[in-house]
Amino acid sequence: MRVNQLTITQVRNLQNPSLNFSPRLNIFFGPNAAGKSSILESLYILGNGRSFRTTKHNNVITENNHDFTLFAKVESSDINHQLGFNRQRNGDTTIKLNSEPVNRLSTLAKLCPVQILSPEQYDLLVKGPGARRKQLDWGVFHVEHSVLEVWQKTNKILQHRNKLLKQKSGYSDVSVWDNQLVSLSEQVTQLRQAYCDKINPLFSQLCQQFLGQLDIKINLFPGWTDKHSIGLSAIYREQFEKDKKLGFTQSSIQKADLKFLIDGTKSAGDYLSRGQQKLLITAFKLAQLKVMQAYGQQAPVFLLDDIGAELDERHQNQLLDLLASQPNNQQIFITCVHLEPLKPLISHCDDLKLFHVEHGVVKEVAKDEIEVYEA
Ligand SMILES: Nc1ncnc2c1ncn2[C@@H]1O[C@H](COP(=O)(O)OP(=O)(O)OP(=O)(O)O)[C@@H](O)[C@H]1O
């Protein structure tokens, strides 16, 4: 998938730019607080319906305005589409695809897969399991769209079961749902496990590149522990009284987690330095990108926010080499303050666009003009 054109209206400090992008590499450079990340935020919203920086949509709307609008021309599976996204301060959202209203965010996600690596995500290992599960499920969905229906059914039954548990219903009433719940939970787990099996060799290889000889792998925790291999049905039977007391199902796909383990046992979050954790997350995101390139319906747009901020020179160069070796159908958007470290990537790539951003004004700059800005 690629974004060919984007018009941004009333997003943060941006002065309503209308931008034509390169299908390969787009670099936004300029001083702090210029508006660079706000452009990536707009691209991210196109594919996810929400920001990666805030859970509050209203923060994205330019102060003293009522709404923001994004209008994009995108190419998805070789078909051109026009995509519009408008969000009002009162929460009303209108999404239009080729002038037709879109009611489901999953339609956006299928059409415009967007992956991001930003400083906000470097603490993924030490955050709660929810953030890791989100990353996992994002990857599973983009390799196997059918998982969405299974998730939705599973979550509906879980909600119903939890309601009965809260009402202190008896075992016979609650367990009516268990067979179906177990079967659906196993389907979700199988798809998650299949994704982990796909990503692990690519992830380990990238970790070796970034972190040296450490043996790091991803392990899926399905959401329950089955020490005696009794199966989920028996676990539900065993845990019923405790579930009833708590008022919810303790063992479920909603408790799943991705464990990043060193030598199969040590938790990477407890063992690695902050810097190493950042490299691990970078390797994980790149592995997700590679899985999608290999198995997904289409390659996602890859956003790299503040590329120079968190990595030392050697690792930044490794990342840039990896970006330079991405396949031709991989569209990349990068933000940075200074272009100097990116010069090898810039000279290597023929099909790139550079944009200078300052005080919310975005201006396309030719390769031979950049010295003026870097002076
Ligand atoms: N709702 C808003 N309305 C107007 N301006 C806003 C709004 N929200 C944030 N801003 C301002 O927009 C500017 C753009 O921030 P942004 O994070 O996009 O810049 P940046 O170029 O990525 O900066 P950095 O290099 O420091 O990460 C900031 O000055 C911020 O204070």
From TrEMBL:
Gene3D superfamilies registered for this protein in UniProt: P-loop containing nucleotide triphosphate hydrolases, RecF/RecN/SMC, N-terminal domain
Family: Belongs to the RecF family.
PROSITE patterns: RECF_2
Localization of this protein: Cytoplasm
UniProt xrefs under Pfam families: SMC_N
Residues that hold ATP according to the record: G30, P31, N32, A33, A34, G35, K36, S37
Stated role: The RecF protein is involved in DNA metabolism; it is required for DNA replication and normal SOS inducibility. RecF binds preferentially to single-stranded, linear DNA. It also seems to bind ATP.
Keyword Magnesium carried by entry: no
Gene: recF
Alphabetical keyword list: ATP-binding, Cytoplasm, DNA damage, DNA repair, DNA replication, DNA-binding, Nucleotide-binding, SOS response
Domain RecF/RecN/SMC N-terminal: 3-340
Family annotation (SUPFAM superfamilies): P-loop containing nucleoside triphosphate hydrolases (SSF52540)
InterPro entries: DNA-binding_RecF (IPR001238), DNA-binding_RecF_CS (IPR018078), P-loop_NTPase (IPR027417), RecF/RecN/SMC_N (IPR003395), RecF_2 (IPR042174)
Record-given protein name: DNA replication and repair protein RecF
